[in-house]
Structure formats: C-alpha cells, structure tokens
C-alpha cells in the first residue's frame, strides 16, 4: 500500500521562526558579522514565545550559521541563513555516535599500522595534506578538503587493504562527521595541530604514540554541538 496519504507532519513553531529569520536576513541584506535583534525583540515582533526563538537560535548555532556570544548577542557567521531541514539534523544526530565509534576503532589502528609501515612517499602525502589544510584555514575556510586528504593519507600509509575497504564503506558518514566537527568554533586550527601530532608520531615510527594521538583527535571530533542538542517536539 502507498503511504502517500499518511498524516501530514505539523511544522514546529520554531521551524516557522527559522524561516522568518532566513527571510529577515535575506531581505535586510545582512552579512557575516552582523548582529541579529535580541531574543526578546524577536519574540515580540514575531508574536511567539522567547522559548520558540531560543530553540530556533540553538538550531542555527548547531548548524554553524550564527554565534551566540555570552551577554553579547547573536551574530551571523555566514551571509545567509540557509538552514538544513530539522528532520535531517535529527537523523544525523541519531547516527553520528555510531559513525564516531567506528572511526575511533578503525582510525586508531590505521595510525598504529602507518607508524610501522609508512614510506617516505606516504609521509610526503600527509605533509602535503596538512599544508593544504593550513592554506584553507588561512583563507577563512574550515579545512575540510585538507582534513580528508590527511586521513586518506594515513589510511594509505597503513598498507592494509581490508581496513582501507572498511573506511571506504563509510566514506559518506565520515564526511558528514568531518563537516560537523570542523564547523565548530576554533576547531579547524585545533584539528590541524592534532593532525601534526599524529604525523610526528608516524614519522618517528612510534605506533603507540600514533594510536594515542589519533584516538585523542577522533574524540575531539566527537565533541560537537549537534550531540548536545535536544530536538523539541513542538
């Protein structure tokens, strides 16, 4: 039987607030660094409770679109509020812990093996990846491509066909966790430093230190606002 006539989902009030805020930013020509009106003012102008406005602001924070400064207001991080559908966020929040658990198990072992088996060519690939990531960050980006290249280089340096296949099987989920992590405030530069520590251990052929450095890094990746977010039902 078709489910085309299933009951329609009722849009949450804070989702309506999100849409109004998106329109406000677009029509007002606001840009990154501009401040949104205080929550109290937004609630009055939109005719909703402050709780609904606060829920909407939290969703924007989780998506890395705004920065709420303690006692200092809420500021745009980008030039628009093109928000991701809340249901997609809920689904990503559901699967992210499993992805991070798999990453820790696989990538810790890969770093250990890389320290034992890496070639000079492997090390060059890792250094090139970190240089690329540094350039991305310097240009104001999050360093996503450099991050991808570095972890791919570590995987290659382990010279384990089966583990590499396991990594390829969760490529999309890893990319999702990477993006989620690197849009956390201050995270790109911290990740770059952690990558350097991993590379140093691999270059020095110290398997235990390489595994420890990778485990520390992946656990940092796991610290994202999305996992602290409690989706509201109404």
Automatic annotation (TrEMBL):
It comes from the Bacteria. Residues 96-123 form a coiled coil. The keyword Coiled coil applies. InterPro entries: GntR_C, TF_FadR/GntR_C, Tscrpt_reg_HTH_GntR, WH-like_DNA-bd_sf, WH_DNA-bd_sf. Residues 11-79 form the HTH gntR-type domain. Keywords: Coiled coil, DNA-binding, Transcription, Transcription regulation. This is FadR/GntR family transcriptional regulator. It comes from Streptomyces coeruleofuscus. The lineage of its organism: Bacteria, Bacillati, Actinomycetota, Actinomycetes, Kitasatosporales.
């Amino acid at each position: 039987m078709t489910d085309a006539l299933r009951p329609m989902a009722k849009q949450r009030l804070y989702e309506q607030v999100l849409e109004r805020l998106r329109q406000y930013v677009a029509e007002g020509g606001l840009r990154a660094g501009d401040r949104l009106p205080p929550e109290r003012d937004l609630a009055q102008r939109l005719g909703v409770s402050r709780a609904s406005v606060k829920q909407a602001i939290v969703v924007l924070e989780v998506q890395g679109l705004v920065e709420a400064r303690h006692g200092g207001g809420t500021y745009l991080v980008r030039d628009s509020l093109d928000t991701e559908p809340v249901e997609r966020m809920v689904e990503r929040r559901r699967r992210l812990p499993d992805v991070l658990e798999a990453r820790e198990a696989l990538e810790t072992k890969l770093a250990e093996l890389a320290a034992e088996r890496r070639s000079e060519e492997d090390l060059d690939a890792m250094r090139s990846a970190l240089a690329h990531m540094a350039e991305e960050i310097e240009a104001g980006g999050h360093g996503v491509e450099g991050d991808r290249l570095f972890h791919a280089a570590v995987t290659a340096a382990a010279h384990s066909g089966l583990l590499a296949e396991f990594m390829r099987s969760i490529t999309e989920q890893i990319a999702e966790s990477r993006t989620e992590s690197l849009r956390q405030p201050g995270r790109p530069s911290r990740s770059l430093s952690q990558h350097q520590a991993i590379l140093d251990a691999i270059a020095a052929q110290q398997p235990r230190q390489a595994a420890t450095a990778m485990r520390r890094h992946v656990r940092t990746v796991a610290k994202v606002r999305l996992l602290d977010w409690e989706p509201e039902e109404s």
